[in-house]
Amino acid sequence: RLHVAGCGLGLGPLRGGQAAAAGGVRDEVKEYYGKVLQKSADLQTNACCTAVELPQEVKAAIGKVHPEVVSKYFGCGLCVPEALSGLSVLDLGCGSGRDCYVLAQLVGESGSVVGVDMTDEQLSTARQHVAWHADAFGYARPNTDFKQGYIEDLKGIGLGDETFDVVVSNCVVNLSPDKAAVLREAFRVLKAGGEMYFSDVYADRRVPPHLRDDPLLYGECLGGALYWNDFLALAKAAGFADPRLVEDAPITVANPALEEKLCGIRFYSATYRLFKLPGRLEADCEDYGQAVVYKGTLPGRAAAFDLDSHHHIEAGKVFPVCGNTYHMLASTRFRQHFEYVGAHPHEAGKSAHFGIFDGCGKSLPFASASAAGAGGQCC
Fold first, then answer.
1. Least enclosed by CB within 10 Å: which of 67, 98, 184, 195?
2. CB half-sphere exposure, 119, CA atoms < 13 A
3. What sign does the CA torsion over 44, 48, 54, 58 have?
4. Least trusted range by pLDDT, from 7-11, 28-32, 293-297
5. What is the mean pLDDT of residues 262-284?
6. Nearest alpha-carbon partner for 158 in 169, 145, 174
7. Confidence check: pLDDT of 50 > 70
């Protein structure tokens, strides 16, 4: 399993020529993250470096993580969702364990965090500080565990169905040769109502084979970056019916020689949240006349809660939502933090349907309709 505290990865078993190719990628990534990179400063681009502003509680948690673990962090985004107390969390590509040890503080002593990685050197760093962190956090026993394995084959390391409340990943999926398998496995191990909350690198177009095969570009999280629209299709095929973009930022690469190689391809660091809500989420945002009122009770978010980049929900204000957003709040760990207006969209005979939700990116397709051509941002 490989990883760089954020740009890590586990390359699962494939077949035939795919297996050989995956093995080659696996060896190259192990070499890059286990031998070549010793600290964050060794990276040759900024693709694997987080630039987002961290919440105060996360900054405080990082301050309690062992310096050696922090020095080997290479993440490309923020993988710390809200409302984690008491939950079970899985980190795909945990690397040296920085995010795991941050999460271990946020889930509390009653929660648990499992990190998966394939790189010996990274896992060695993570494991040697388990007891140190438990003591630093004031826990009677550690709430972290690190497993060596492949993120495409979590069953192979004994992770069962519907085991975790939350799955996180920080700049790892781009390194996998079978990204669809990674998403399928994440869906499998999540409990119903759980979510995959992860950051990764995306491209504005499909990266051509000669760039995907470049070891340096691959190791720097660029060669394996998914075209954003292909990612959406893979996520939906895995069962995550309505992927939600939380935040994004352009990657400048900051290496002239590599920028010239990339021939104008633009890359982005983006954080998505994918909810496992079987039978609840629809292909599009449908209007059932519903709304929510945020109670302001999430820690550190008394004034407002950002579900995603298009849902800034202020406390105490009636906020109209589509059926999908309703379920992302009412059928998940966020339920207690909201009041709900309108019927449950899947309660037969109790909810009226008013068509597509206004402003979700679609509109009535008929030219004779007065609203033809209307459309806005996706809700």
1. 67
2. 35
3. negative
4. 7-11
5. 94
6. 145
7. no
Q: What one-letter code names the amino acid at 294?
A: Y
Asked if 258 and 220 count as a contact pair (C-beta separation under 8 A), the reply is: yes
Kindly state the greatest CA–CA separation across the chain. 69
Contacts of 110 (CB under 8 A, 6+ apart): 85, 86
What would the two tokens of residue 369 be?
Answer: 């309709």
Please give the Cα distance from 13 to 27 (Å, whole number): 13
Computed on alpha carbons and rounded to an integer, the radius of gyration of the chain in Å comes to: 21
> How far is it, in rounded angstroms, from Cα 331 to Cα 366?
34
Asked if 177 and 14 count as a contact pair (C-beta separation under 8 A), the reply is yes
SS3 145: strand
The C-alpha atoms of residue 188 and residue 176 are separated, in whole angstroms, by 18
What CA–CA distance (Å, rounded) separates 302 from 294?
9
